[in-house]
Here is the input.
Amino acid sequence: MQNFSIGIIGAGNMGLALASGLALRMAPGRIAVSDPHPDKRQRVSDLGISALADNDSVVARADLLVLAVKPQAVRGLCTAIAPTVRDRQVLVISVAAGIRGADIARWLGGAPAVIRAMPNTPALINAGVSVLWANDQATAAQRQAAATVLGAVSEVFWLTDEALMDAATAISGSGPAYFFLMVEALTVAGVALGLPQDLSAALAAGTAAGAGRMVHDHPAEAALLRARVTSPGGTTERAIKSLLGEGFMEMFGRAALAARDRSRELGEQLGAA
Ligand SMILES: NC(=O)c1ccc[n+]([C@@H]2O[C@H](COP(=O)([O-])OP(=O)(O)OC[C@H]3O[C@@H](n4cnc5c(N)ncnc54)[C@H](OP(=O)(O)O)[C@@H]3O)[C@@H](O)[C@H]2O)c1
Here is the structure.
């Protein structure tokens, strides 16, 4: 897989982000993307990457194929490209939330190598995290190739238990929205305290970015970092006590459970039949 060719089907948010990240790391001539929309193909062409309307032409030249379409579109896509994938023994990487590896393999037919990846939105600015899982057919070289592809836009972590992909989706896949919500909430709180809207939003967003950078460098030490900025008897302690007293930790537990269950549900609904 040293000089693998990459095909990406779907040039939406994630497909375009992957294409952009990869174009900086490998010869654009080794990448091809397909999408039905001319405007999206134009954005791909602007990267120097071949953009086609026809999926089969992309599959026909790929060693590694990324399915970057919505979960609801995966089944139809797999069925349509199955003969070409089978002929060429292409590694298929799906970034679709919820859709299980066994269902993708069944729709493709034969015994294809399938890797599931769950990236997240910060991949659009090359700051994502991705969780990957590979089926038994994927070779070590194919796993390495998949890590290289997702590594173009994100940090990469592997899971050996596919069932935990739903949990990872609940934490990092959906996670950026939780932090955006916190910035929204903090902005509203600042305005309620009399700050101008723009200033409150800038303070909340800047604080999220700075705190994010600090904890990113010490992921196991979130509680310690919090303790360090929480002086006894101080303002932060008062706020944290209020948050914890209102059930902040339990709220996150319930939210993550709801997201995990929805991911499972999607897999069951869309994988049926
Ligand atoms: N965006 C994220 O932050 C994120 C994070 C993690 C995982 N994901 C996963 O990434 C996948 C793509 O998400 P997205 O946000 O990039 O979606 P998106 O913006 O809707 O992009 C998908 C693109 O693929 C096209 N498409 C659909 N069916 C196709 C087919 N059969 N052949 C070729 N192109 C086709 C779509 O066209 P139409 O619009 O006409 O259908 C659209 O242009 C999803 O499965 C999602 O679960 C996304």
Observations:
- The domain at 173-266 is CATH 1.10.3730.10 (ProC C-terminal domain-like fold).
- The chain has two domains: 6-169, 173-266.
- Residues 248-271 form the longest helix (24 residues).
- The beta strands are 6-9, 31-34, 50-52, 64-67, 91-94, 114-118, 128-134, 154-158.
